[in-house]
């Protein structure tokens, strides 16, 4: 099998040909944090955000983003995702919101970028919905948590939730 690279024989960027790879179950999870003032977190917990249900809108934004990853990330393969879960949870330790996105597919390439995109866009949505009350929020630590399936094997970040 040819080496997987985004460079062709002339050194130009191109989409990797995964046509010869077997279809296998692939899963990935990623997270992103939105750090905010304690008063903003209290407003969010009370359900008093002026733009509505921040948790629900961020969850839907993350799901939509995962489905459109190939349109957002150059050279990313479009995937018919089997599952997308986005959890948006208030987190006192930050203080702020922690987003965890999980994606799965039966395919020839992994879903790490879909999970990362979902987490990042959900975090941007939280920021957008609360920026009028807290412009000092920080979107932080967008990271891959787990990856299963594919030729490169499994990956689990230390201290990743189960």
Automatic annotation (TrEMBL):
InterPro entries: MoaC, MoaC_bact/euk, MoaC_sf, MoCo_biosynth_MoaA/MoaC, Mopterin_CF_biosynth-C_dom. Pfam families: MoaC. GO terms for molecular function: cyclic pyranopterin monophosphate synthase activity; GTP 3',8'-cyclase activity. The keyword Aminoacyl-tRNA synthetase does not apply. Substrate binds at residues 75-77, 113-114. Its EC number is 4.6.1.17. HAMAP family: MoaC_B. The gene is moaC. Belongs to the MoaC family. Keywords: Lyase, Molybdenum cofactor biosynthesis. Residues 15-150 form the Molybdopterin cofactor biosynthesis C (MoaC) domain. Pathway: Cofactor biosynthesis; molybdopterin biosynthesis. This is Cyclic pyranopterin monophosphate synthase. It catalyses: (8S)-3',8-cyclo-7,8-dihydroguanosine 5'-triphosphate = cyclic pyranopterin phosphate + diphosphate. The active site is at residue 128. One of its GO terms (biological process) is Mo-molybdopterin cofactor biosynthetic process. Catalyzes the conversion of (8S)-3',8-cyclo-7,8-dihydroguanosine 5'-triphosphate to cyclic pyranopterin monophosphate (cPMP).
């Amino acid at each position: 099998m040819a080496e997987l690279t985004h460079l062709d024989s002339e050194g130009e960027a191109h989409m990797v040909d995964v046509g010869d790879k077997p279809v296998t179950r692939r899963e990935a999870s990623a997270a992103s944090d939105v750090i905010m003032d304690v008063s903003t977190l209290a407003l969010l917990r009370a359900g008093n955000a002026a733009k509505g249900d921040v948790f629900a809108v961020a969850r839907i934004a993350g799901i939509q983003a995962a489905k459109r990853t190939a349109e957002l990330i150059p050279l990313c393969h479009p995937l018919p995702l089997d599952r997308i879960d986005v959890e948006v949870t208030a987190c006192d330790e930050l203080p702020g919101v922690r987003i965890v996105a999980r994606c799965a597919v039966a395919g020839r390439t992994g879903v790490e970028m879909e999970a990362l995109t979902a987490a990042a866009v959900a975090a941007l949505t939280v920021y957008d919905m609360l920026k009028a009350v807290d412009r000092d929020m920080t979107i932080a630590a967008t990271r891959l948590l787990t990856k299963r399936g594919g030729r490169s094997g499994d990956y689990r970040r230390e201290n990743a939730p189960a």
